[in-house]
Amino acid sequence: MDTNVPLGNERGGRVETVAYDNNIVRMFAIASLVFGVVGFLVGIIVAIKLYIPGFLGGIDFLSYGRLRPLHTNAVIFAFAGNAIFLGVYYSLQRLCKTRMFSDTLSKIHFWGWQLIIVSAAITLPLGITTSKEYAELEWPIDLAITLVWVVFGWNMIGTILRRKEKHMYVAIWFYLATFLTVALLHVVNSLSLPVHLLKSYSMYAGVQDALVQWWYGHNAVAFFLTTPFLGIMYYFIPKAAERPVFSYRLSIIHFWALIFLYIWAGPHHLLYTALPDWAQSLGVVFSFMLIAPSWGGMVNGLLTLRGAWDKVRTDPVLKFMVVGVTAYGMSTFEGPMMSLKNINALTHYTDYIIAHVHLGALLWNGGLTFAMLYYIFPRIYRTKLYSISMANWHFWLMTLGVLIYVIPLYWGGITQSLMWKQFLPDGTLQYPNFLETVTQLIPMYVMRSIGGTLYLLGACVGIWNLYKTARSGKLLANEEVQVVNRMAEKSHEPKEGWHRLLEGTPVRFSLLIFVAVLIGGVVEFVPTALVESNIPTIASVKPYTPLELEGRDIYVREGCYTCHSQMIRPFRSETERYGEYSKVGEFVYDRPFQWGSKRTGPDLHRIGGKYPNAWHWKHMNEPRSTSPGSIMPGYGWMYTVDLDVSHTEGKILTMQKLGVPYPEGFAANAVADLQAQAATIAEELGNAGIKNVDPKKEIVAMIAYLQRLGTDIKKMPPTASGN
Amino acid sequence: MSVMPLLVICSILVAGGFLLAFLFATKRGQYDDLGTPAVRMLFDDVHKKTEIK
Amino acid sequence: MRCTHCGEPCSDRSIGNETEIFCCTGCKSVYDILQQSGMCEYYAFDGASGVSQRGPARDRSVYDVLDDAATAARFVDYTSGPITRVRLTLPGMHCASCVWLLEQLHRFDQGIRSSRVDLMRKTVEVEFVNTRTGLKSIAIILSSLGYEPLLTSEGTEHDRDVERREATRKIYLRLGIAGFAAGNVMMISIARYVAGEDGMDYTLVSLFSVLSIALSIPVYFFSASPWLTSAVASLRRRVVNLDVPVALGITTLFVRSIIDIVSGGGEGFLDSFAGLVFFLLIGRLFQQKAFDAVSFDRTVRSFFPLSVRREHKGSESVVPIDTIRTGDLMIVRNGEVIPADSVLMSATGYVDYSFVTGESVPVECTSGTMIYAGGKVVGTAVRLTATRPVSQSYLASLWERTASRTPRSSYMKLSDRFGLWFTAGTMVVAFVGAAFWLPNVAVAVNVFTAVLIIACPCALTLAAPITLGTAMGVLGRFGMYIKNIGVLLELKNANTVVFDKTGTLTSTYHDVVYDGTPLTQEEQEAVEAVASHSAHPVSQSIARKMQPSSTADVMVEDVGRGVRGRSNGHEIVIGSTAYLSEILGDSAIANGVGTAVAIDGVLMGRFVMRSHVRKDVPGMVKALRASSLRARLVTGDTDRDEIMLQDVFAKDEMQFRASPSEKVAAVENMRNNGATVLMVGDGLNDVSAMAAADVSIAVTDETSTLAPASDLVMPAARLADLPGLLRYTHELTWVISTALWFTMAYNVVGVSLALAGILTPVITAIMMPVSSLLVVGMSVVGARLFARRFA
User: What secondary structure does DSSP assign to C65-117, as a single string?
Assistant: First the structure.
């Protein structure tokens, strides 16, 4: 047989010298830290804005509605994102016993990702957003993300295929799952039709859009903030504790169970919404089942440290790990609980959710990230950690900060929710004025910003510590190690192939059917899904007028959805407060949907016609003039900036492409129609005593939109209501 | 809910992909030994410096 | 002071230097090797975790035989061109450090390309360039590192391992597909249940239907095939085992669901179907895992060495044992096993037959004695002439006779019994139910199928394997290895326990009793010191009484007869009476027995060896009686120990000097009188009796003991647990039957629903997994809970 196989080198054996790329690890580490600080800082700013609305003045690009998406994106995709890549690039090389597949791809991946982050940091404050939570970036950036993500996957899979160790350690599976699933989620959720370079309308409308968005939203948490960090946990805890994972078998089961369950849990974000009941219940069932694998993972991680608790007391890495994993356990218990309908009814739209996600983000993701950094820096810089005590300081600042952050918000969330639902004996709401329930929370908001600041402080200490560590050592950019190639050459392995994988006719036959059916399904259903997705179910619901459409786009631009929902749930407490509950048929022209996920302010779905135009005019400029004690910022710039109508026609055309039934050729005179409506509004305002209103200003469009909200349904005979 | 089929199919596709991955991995003996890998990953690699002559 | 290498306490710092000290030169040499290779980080992982190298240094020449291609082939996984991969079993491997070191083998031999460890199975795969190195040098490297490869003439059991690996993989594959399908079909079904009749638009309904069918097809044809095939097979054998109703249920479930869905008659039961198969497979996995834990299918070869020293025309050479022909001259050294029946050539020799007969005291043989294969040479090396080739030895033939017995499994019987009963019952109910609804054919068919579905005895098929499988696993952890899960049921039925004394009730470690002029402390020490220098079993036992504190010098050993030495200023002579009579020139001494000892030329007394009852035996037997079991003693030994045992057994319960055939007769006799006999023996000499008994346990000091006929192997130290074990089997059957009754009740409810024609998919979907889950839970928890006592 073939005698030309490598007989190993002079040292004998299949010993090969491999150089791990530590430089890319270092780059991602720095990026993660830098953007982490930015993200935390912006977080604190928006937190302060919640009790000092005027904080940082009335500058449009620093307004709450625009900074909040920046904060979430920075923390999730810049801080945690870079941390994931840092962890993957460090552990994958060592688990596969080989250098990353291609340095070029690594570089493209790194710089591409940072470019995306920077562009996000520019566009979001400018109000260029799709308003889909955690997917706010506009289509050109979405494309860039897709490309860079593919590069990442290519690089990772290439590395795995080149590995020199036969067994794929469980962490690698978690990384793979992350790549594949996030790719799919991102693509499906970002499908949209561009109007121009910086504006697009979602492929899906209303409830469809909401469903896709939360299918994405939930799984983004699952596969971006959970699976990669579980992989990281399974690599770094055993390494740091110098003992094997408690049960490797369990970790494998953990992985497969999680993968098969997670993908279905999405709908629990839409309980009591206009989403069909069965889809909601489905979400509940699967979310609940998730407790099992999640806790399996947590227990596995913690029990790995059994008999090593003395180490935990001394080693910062393990400290951060333990707190992180514990937080994971808490949030993965909270999650399913909150997906139970009656609990959800209480917590949804409140600050309870904010506390929940920050527990996860700050301790689970943050804690693991810093643990990882404390582990990696001394190793790639070939030195010791600069200061253990400083690390301990960081640890306590972090833990304390998070406690001071979450406890008040849990408290506040429940308090507010109960106040919303509080009825007087005579059957009227005890707190009919939403503001009363807000002012209650101010102290909690203050506490929360303090907690956040402590966390940031800790992070800074940590960064200083890592910086000094780096300075005290020298980066080993290419870590040259000797590994034994344990991958048997194909020629020596008994033939293994796909045909043998499916050995036995029944299997092959049935699996083929399975695949065939899937392909058939895709071909048959995807188009229908997209075309049929906007057939009005309520006759009186009509498309938005050009002015309202422009107003809506401003509503989106300013991120009003970050504080106001447009989804009245079928509870007496809500119908009493806001009016008729929301019907699925009312949203068929909403691209994107604006249901929101948080009620810092009241729901706006039935705001139309509730107040006169004049009220809105005053309120939008200086909220406290109409609603004393309001924490809503003023939107002065809407009064000075002219509405940009250059794209109105294009927008109408795009909507028509998406199936919105504007009459033929309507786009041509859209602007005229717009100006006409604007004029009437200006006139009404004039009558209301507000002189010299310029109908060309943005505020007019805004008012037009607000006044339209949720009014269509009133135009029909009540008998035919409902969906 | 005509977007539901899309989501269902996408989800099933991903899950199906993972299933195939699982079958393939099992076939290739990835899961024959579920003990040693956990130990093996603990060892740091031998650095070039400490090479044996 | 602890050894730097193995961490065992060291008597002194004689070996090593001020920083490192070693318990023995063996450990030091391993340490030196690691140090030269700069691999001392070996000690970094688990501290001083090396394998202790105490005891006589291995003679490297035993590996010569590995140069013989045919022999080496027994360890080869595959060879292709210049690359060869072998797999060796290293009993010494135990920790992370072992893994690390053994995967660095290429550092010791340029020919080694890579090595891969399986810590669980204690094997190492070595891939090497067969033009540069060979199995022999690899074995030498391993043993020099302190990992003595297990080189039995059976080789590394590739076929069996591969077989098992494939079996386990198959189950994983089936589980994967079933689990995947179950999960997704369940998702779809839940959606449809909560959606109700028209809560979902048509496109989605049809998509879901197509998907669930597509997902279920692989489950039926692949995941469920074990039951389908088994059912068909058993029907071919004109037997109705438990798999028949299961297969029936599964098939009905599957077919009817598809018909329902395609005909638009309903959403079908596919979720229940997939879930059911998933649970059934979990049951299978338990069985497989438990089975993997023990290897009963060993062959007699696994007890023979790979090679033996043959003297041919005055030159010694190590040859594979199969090459031994009648008349060949063999040299067997201390601790080696005699591979073939042969005649002793040396003047005297000591052979330890405990391996074969369980007889604890080594037998002294004189020139010309017939010696049987399987004996272990003690003390000095002996020269033997083979009288038969290895394959025809008494041992081998005995083995063939016993091991070839097909193992009785009452589990099978149980399954078959239940199967018929169950199927018949179900069928009757189904037909009656259907008939009741006629002429309304639609409902009748519906009812008929519904009954078959709900009556599917999945719980039945789960309870027994999972409970017993779990139990098997747990017992394995305490060193009690069971041949198959049926054995546990057999044990339960036993009402008479028959013991074979030798080695079973008595310890193989024998005491040496001194009788004669009392010795002073320092005289005694002197004697032990001298004795410790002789390999003779008696001397060893004398020395074993206390770690010699004083040292002896001027040693003269007349091998096999006696030893002389000077210690504490005394002249000590220990040996056979004949030997002493020569030394002291006093012929009177010669006609005594035992081993005599003389100090400074004066005969002091004799050492008499006596085995004694294991201390926990009396209590154990009492406990057995307490749980109304009869205890008997049937042994081939002389009644010299009757006194010792009389406070354990009544006179009429003991039978001595029983030949193997008499033992069998005794057992048969008891069985004819309606007793269900549990034979507790310890060696091959009990084999026929064990075979005759309903169930048998082999009690051993080292697990490698020959026990072909036994259904269960238990370490001697655990003998006290025997009553507990028997009680445990009762508890296990209790657990199983509870589970069964539970599911019976469950099925009654289900069946009545079915008969009423109101068994909707939703109800099934809830009932099936819930019952399965409960059964699995009950079985596992129950089996573990009751096993606490062994901890």
Answer: GGGSHHHHHTTEEEEETTEEEEEEE-TT--SHHHHHHHTTGGGT-TTEEEEEE
- Chain-chain contact of B52 with C208 (C-beta, under 8 angstroms): no
Q: How big is the CA angle at B30 (ends C147 and C116), to the nearest 5 degrees?
A: 20
- How far is Cα C693 from Cα C688, in angstroms, rounded to an integer? 9
Place of tokens 């080693």: A315
**pLDDT tier at C508 (50, 70, 90 boundaries)?**
low
Report the 10 Å Cβ neighbour count for A19: 15
Under an 8 A CB cutoff, do B9 and A481 touch? no
Say whether C187 and A276 touch across the interface (CB within 8 A): no
B13–A165 C-beta distance less than 8 A: no
**Contact indicator for C111, C132 with CB cutoff of 8 Å:** yes
Segment A86-97 shows an average pLDDT of 96
- Which residues of chain B have a CB within 8 Å of the CB of A529? 2-6
ipTM: 0.80
Among positive and negative, which fits the CA dihedral C764, C765, C770, C773?
positive
CA of C402 vs chain B CAs: smallest distance (Å): 33
Number of A to B CB contacts under 8 A, please give it: 126
- Give C641's DSSP letter: G
3-state class of C586 per DSSP? coil
Top residue of C76, C87, C100, C113 to mutate, by most chain A CBs within 10 Å, is C113
Tell me if C200 and A511 make a contact (CB, 8 A cut-off).
Answer: no
Percent of chain C with pLDDT over 90: 3
The minimum CA-CA distance between A157 and chain C, rounded to whole Å, is 23
Q: Cβ contacts (< 8 Å) between C191 and chain A: which residues?
A: 278-279, 281-282
What would the mean pLDDT of C241-257 be, rounded to a whole number? 85
Q: Look up residue C139 and give its two tokens.
A: 């074995």
C162 touches chain A (CB under 8 A): no
What's the rounded mean pLDDT across residues A412-421? Answer: 93
Instruction: Give CA–CA dist C279/C178, Å, rounded.
Output: 9
3-state class (DSSP) for residue C671:
helix
User: DSSP string spanning A354-403?
Assistant: HHHHHIIIIIIIHHHHHHHHHHHHHHHTTS--S-HHHHHHHHHHHHHHHH
Q: Which of A30, A331, A373, A92 is nearest to A231 (CA)?
A: A92
- The SS3 assignment for A717 reads coil
Query: Is the minimum CB–CB distance between C81 and chain A shorter than 8 Å?
Result: yes
pLDDT digits (tens, 9 = 90+) for A603-646: 999 999 999 999 999 999 999 999 998 999 999 999 999 999 99
Cα A33 to the chain's mean position, in Å? 19
Q: Which single residue is written with the structure tokens 């497989």?
A: C288
Q: Measuring CA to CA, how many Å separate A623 from each of A53, A57, A277, A432, A636?
A: 10, 14, 38, 18, 11
Q: Which residues of A touch C192 (CB under 8 A)?
A: 278
Residues of C in contact with B1 (CB under 8 A): 200-201, 204
Q: Which residues of B touch C37 (CB under 8 A)?
A: 52
For residue range B1-53, list pLDDT tens digits in order: 467 777 777 777 777 888 888 888 888 888 888 888 988 888 888 776 544 43
d(CA C481, CA C712): 6
Tell me whether B38 touches chain C (CB under 8 Å).
no
- State the Cα–Cα distance between residues C699 and C680, nearest whole angstrom: 7
pLDDT at C423: 79
Decide: C92 and A14 in contact? Cβ < 8 Å. Answer: no
Burial class (CB in 10 A: 0-12, 13-18, 19+), C236: exposed
CA distance A574 to A560: 20
Is the CB of residue A591 less than 8 Å from the CB of residue A202?
yes
- Which residues 6+ apart lie within 8 Å of A222 measured at CB? A181, A262, A263, A265
